[in-house]
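Entry type: protein chain
Record version: 2
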Amino acid sequence: MSKSIVARSYAFRARHNLMLPTVISRLFDLVQPATEQLLHRIWSNAYLERLGINPGIKAYKSIPESEVYLVLNQQSVYFPSRMRRCIAEAVGEIIRSQYKRKLCFEAITKVLQSIDLKQDLNTLVQQVAYTLEKFYNQKFKWNMIRQTLQLIRRWVLKYKLDIWNLEYINLVKPKAGKNFLTYGPDDNQVLKYMKSRRYIHLELKIPKIAVPQSPKDWIWRKERLDIPLKLRPRIRASKRQRPFRPHLRLLKLKNGLQVPIFQFSWPLAKVTLNYEYYSKKRVLAVDLGLVNPATSVVCEAGLQLSTPFFLSANQRRLHYIERCYTQITQLQHKLTKYPEIHTKQAKRQRELERIHAKLQRCRQQDVYQLVNQLLKQATLYGCTTIAIEDLRFYTPPKGMSKLSRKLSNWIRGLFKAILESKAKQHGLQIIAVNPAYTSSYCPRCSKKGLKIREPGFKWVDTKGRYFYCPHCYYCADRDYVGALNIYRVYRALQRSTKKQKYTISTARPVFYKKMVSPPNRPGGKPHVTT
């Protein structure tokens, strides 16, 4: 699939023939060790360079099929030729993903010879990123630099390794994904599928015995995947009805049952706004927060077109998260109090990992709900741009453990990544602006205001949730004021030049134009699908 094609993938659970315990597990009992052995055999600089320099070439074309073999119980396992291609493709993608990290490691080792590794990690990341970009003209993602520095600090400070005399392939040993197989290189020899309106009918070739010796030991197994009702209109709106070749993974449930999951993807239709009806300058300004996860307002040409939208947090979910953190604190105390050889330490460690996984799922669910609400509002009002806060360099305060923990686990990074990904499907543009002082200046007169507790009381309160301007007597919620000021900053950025930079105090004010409901849609839908 070309990188220029935007696709959306959906997971389908097998519920019929492939749910038998020995059917799908027998396939992965052969594929998993074959993948790990192939990755161990070809992990070298030659394959790293070959696969990394040519990202457009299929990975299985660079790896000979003769390299894919497996010996079990002193017997050679027979794989169909397309199954060997699929295994080679999976291993090639793993090696290809390490090429960029290898370049990042080699670039950082040039810089670290004159930098102290024992300093604060955030300061070290900023210093390394600045040096690489200015003096070596190399730019890497912030998270990649941070993860590489964490590994280097562990190797140097903890294990006392001389990384400057060692190569990347000697320090890093990648692992294959557990119970995962891609069918991209296949041409209907190990997987056949056909989509109807309600189902996806497929046939999968699986081994009949534990150690297959010939093609007769592989048989076809039929399966039917149900398409949920809410997904059918989305699939019908895609460019083509037949999906791309799927990925297969084996999901293990808590009760020990292993469930096969097929990940199919469809190319999305290109979505553009109908500019004859909607303006090109309509913006949805979003202010993020802890009390209200998001506060948004629609603006256009210096005018506010909608009342503010406050997306409040689920109180039951917040109480549940706090209980999880209380359990984590108790388990961490027991893990440090008792010795490692204690009989219950392994069980406590597993319980700690399970709670952390729960919190991760809660964060992802909250982010997806928040992004869907914002996109729904943006498309309803015909916005072409969403302006959000750029919170990459925000650091939590020290000395306030509970607030610091909430801010550290804030969803700002995950929120921006998912919002940018889903905004492309709706034809929207995402612009991140500097949020400095956006809740401290008046959006109506551009003067600095005060924090107050309630609209009726005009005394200053540093913890107040409301904003009051003593110059024009404007009073509103601080999140609402922050959303309006984000639009002011966005508008000033569009007008600013290198010689004349903007400031929040000199940005043009925003005035209110009454529009209490979304505009009517005469004659049809607000989007044109091509």
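Comment: Residues 275-279, 520-530 have pLDDT under 50 and may be disordered.
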